[in-house]
Amino acid sequence: MTVAVLDSGTYYHHETIFGDRFRDRFDRVIYAPALTAADLAEPTLLIVPDRTNPDVMRRYQPLLADFLARGNTLVVLGESEAETWAPGVRSAGRPTNFWWWLDPAQKPPHQFVAPEHELFEYVPADSTIWHIHGVLFPPDGAQPLVTVPDDRDGRDPGGALLYDDRVTTPGRLIVSTLDPFYHHGSRFMPATTRFLDGFLRWAQATARS
Question: H or E segment at 112?
Answer without folding.
Answer: strand 111-112
